[in-house]
Amino acid sequence: MCGVIGIVSHGPVNQLLYDGLLCLQHRGQDAAGIMTADGAVFHMHKAKGMVLDIFRTRNMRDLLGAAGIGHTRYPTAGSAVSVHEAQPFYVNSPFGITLAHNGNLTNGEALKRELFNVDARHINTNSDSEVLLNVFALELERAAQGVKLTPEKIFTAVRGVHQRCRGAYAVLAMIAGYGLVAFRDPHGIRPLVFGRNDTMAGAEFAVASETVALDVLGFKFERDVAPGEALFIDFAGHLHTKQCADNPKLTPCIFEYVYLARPDSVIDGISVYEARIRLGSELALEVMKLPDWESIDVVVPIPDSSRPSALELAFKIGRPYREGFVKNRYVGRTFIMPGQAMRKKSVRQKLNPIASEFKGKTVLLVDDSIVRGTTSREIVQMAREAGAVKVFFASAAPPVIYPNVYGIDMPTPSELIAVGKTTEQIATEISADRVIYQTIDGMKRAIRAGNPAIEDFDASCFDGCYVTGDITPQFLKGLANSRDESRGEVVGADQ
Questions:
Q1: Based on the domain organization, do 50 and 140 belong to the same domain?
Q2: In terms of CB atoms within 10 Å, which end of the chain has fewer, N or C?
């Protein structure tokens, strides 16, 4: 999960890209970068850290040009400790290309070997995004055939990328002297939207991971980029689009709606906020199946993403909704922090209970999901220390029992608390009196209600159905090993 944004304007875009990345900071907090195009010259600044810390006035002054792309990184493939993994990436042949990518390639390692042994292209990092950039560069070179690029030749190159690359990818790229290219994998797993702003100088375009970035920047939302579709916006502001995949089928990542995306975004026609409300309604049905559900005194959300679900759940079961935890907003999202020890420490730093909402009560805590259980265990303990008589814990998502391979850090079954355990065993492990999970059917029903035209979702971390059709047990084992190695000492400290 990363955030990407690209803009083609008639004036400087450095501030617009910066503001857009701030809106997408929730999608990645490891590193960020901006590349702008000033004519045929690229200007770049990228580093590890948060957007606010990376870009100073002196850096912004150097980002000249009326077009550019930006990226905020959440590492799942590659190294979380290396600044060289920050995006955008750049190659100088052919034409000069820079690229930012959200997602994971499932055949990245095979492509890396092929690029070196067959295509004589060198990959300098462990990032599959650099692999994708080199595949795109190679396909552009083949499509151009040594002459000037046209939109059709760019679309031919994207078609070549679709034929060679497997997995999830929402891509923004700039070609020096030509324009901005955006495309989405044939399954539409990772989100990508674009908007337009009509000015006196002509049309301006923005492409981003979520609609919230368009809203904040003043661009009118046009539509989602379709699965397999490519957009080319030349530096004069002319838009060209084409479907470049043979058999595209929209199967968006369901975890975007459960947790990842901002609630004020709309993804593939579905309001994230309204989807989370409906998740709460479905979860209420599961809560009321408990023989002792009427003993619940109060419903308390785990801030922030579970609030809509908890509010609707409380309404459905007829119990008060209370804010029982105060959140320190200067601590990052614990889910995306590397290492159990760091996550455990950060939970206590991030949340503090309001004792009056817990003392002497049976409390139903509502969270968006339970992944590793580290956060849940600490929260339950805090509720008990604050005086709760009983603690029920409800998850708006089903049990996470399979690794995610498309850009979300849910790596090994050994790290997923629900694998091989009953609900009662999970409750014991997180020290809760009861644990209530959403059903897979209830989750899909709640989210699909926002756009009935979507036939299915990528819900692989819940049901083990990988939509790209190329995931084997051997692949999952190799992925787990590579992620362990990329964590280095962080993993060792946690064992």
A1: yes
A2: C
Which element (helix H / strand E) includes 390?
strand 390-395
| Number of helices and strands in the chain (H, E) | 17, 21
Q: Are residues 130 and 167 in the same domain?
A: yes
Q: How far apart are CA 118 and CA 338, in angstroms?
A: 35
The answer to whether residue 492 sits within a structural domain is: no
* CATH assignment of the domain containing 300: 3.40.50.2020
Residue in 2, 23, 253, 461 annotated catalytic: 2
Cα dihedral 417/423/426/428 (nearest 10): -170
If DSSP codes are grouped into helix, strand and coil, which group holds residue 8? strand
Q: Is residue 240 a contact partner of residue 36, using CB atoms and an 8 Å limit?
A: no
How does strand 220-224 pair with strand 193-199? Answer: antiparallel
397 closest CA partner among 436, 446, 437, 364: 437
Catalytic-residue membership of 253: no
For residue range 195-208, list pLDDT tens digits in order: 999 999 999 999 99
Q: What is the pLDDT of residue 38?
A: 96
Same domain, 312 and 197: no
Regarding whether 79 and 216 lie in a shared domain, the answer is: yes
Q: Is 414 exposed, middle or buried (0-12, 13-18, 19+ CB in 10 A)?
A: exposed
Q: What is the pLDDT of residues 215-252, one digit of tens each?
A: 999 999 999 999 999 999 999 999 999 999 999 999 99
Reduced to 3 states, what is the DSSP secondary structure of residue 183?
strand
User: To 10 degrees, what angle do helices 128-144 and 108-117 make?
Assistant: 50
Q: Residue 222's Cα: distance from chain center in Å?
A: 21
Q: In the 8-state DSSP scheme, what is residue 258?
A: I
Q: Say if 473 falls within a structural domain.
A: no
